[in-house]
C-alpha cells in the first residue's frame, strides 16, 4: 500500500529504514525492523571486524529468516584502512549499503557490482554534490538533531535544500521518532526515513546495560553535539563530524562547544578520565528524538506504530484540502 521509491526499489512494505548504528544496531535489531516490514541496517563501525559481521549474519537469519534481505552501514572515511570490512559486507550479498561520512567514490562501483543499492547520508549541499558525482543511488539528508555522528544543519532545512538541489531520490534522517515525523518528511517529498534513536529502547539493541535506562530518562534537551567521546576513545573521526550523545557527568566535565583541544596532553587527560563501564561517564549516542522515547518496546512494535500513525496522519492531511 505504501508506494515510494524506497518501497518499490527494495520491495519492502514500509518506507522505514532502521538506521545503521555502530555499537547498537546488530543483527537482532535489524532483523526485527525487517520483520516489521521496513529494512533494518546493521551498523558496521570502524572497529567492527569480519568475524563480528559473520556473527550478525547468523543472528539476523535467526531473527528474520534465512532469506532476509541484508543491509549494512559503513563509515566511509575509515574504509581505506579496513578494506576487509567492505569485503565481508559484500560477500553477504546485501540489498542495501550505506557509505556515509566521506567521499564514497572509491567504493560505489564495487558495491553496485555486488548488486546492492547504494545510499549516503549527507549533511550539506556540498556533500550532495560529492556523492552525486560518486554515483550513489539515493541520498539521506541527515540533520544535526540525529543521534550519533552527524552534521550541523537541522533535518527540515537540509531536507528542503537537498530536495530542491537534486533529482536523486532523497530520504530523511534525524529526529524522526513518531508517525508525525515520518508523515512530515514524506509530505515534504522524501521517499522514506531512517529511524535511529526511536529504536534505541528496544531490547534487541546491543550496547552497555545503562544505555536504555539513560535514554528513557533523557528528554530532548539532554543531548550534546560533541567530539569529546571520539577523543576519549581514540576514534580518529575527521573533525567536521561530531557526534550527538546524551549528556552525563563526562560531558559536563569535558565537553567544550568548540571541540576538545587537539593537543595530545588534553586528549590524554580526556581518555584517562573516560570509563565506558560507568553510566555517568560512558557514551550513549542518541538524538533529540530521545524526548519521544519513554518505554522499552520491541523494535517491531516501534516500526509498526510509526507506520500506522504516519498513514493516519497523511490521510488526515489530504482532508485539509477538502
Ligand atoms: C548510537 C548511534 C550510532 C550511529 N552509528 C552510525 C554509523 O555507524 N554509521 C552511520 O552511517 N550512521 C550512524 N548513526 C546515525 C544514524 O544512521 C542515523 O542517521 C540517525 O540515527 C538518525 O537520527 P535519529 O537518531 O534522530 O533517528 C548512528 C546513530 C546512533 C544513534
UniProtKB/TrEMBL annotation:
SUPFAM superfamilies according to UniProt: Inosine monophosphate dehydrogenase (IMPDH)
InterPro entries in the record: Aldolase_TIM (IPR013785), NMO (IPR004136)
UniProt keyword terms in alphabetical order: Dioxygenase, Flavoprotein, FMN, Oxidoreductase
Entry GO MF terms: dioxygenase activity; nitronate monooxygenase activity
Pfam family, one: NMO
Gene3D superfamilies noted in UniProt: Aldolase class I (3.20.20.70)
Organism of provenance: Tsukamurella pseudospumae
Name assigned to this protein: 2-nitropropane dioxygenase
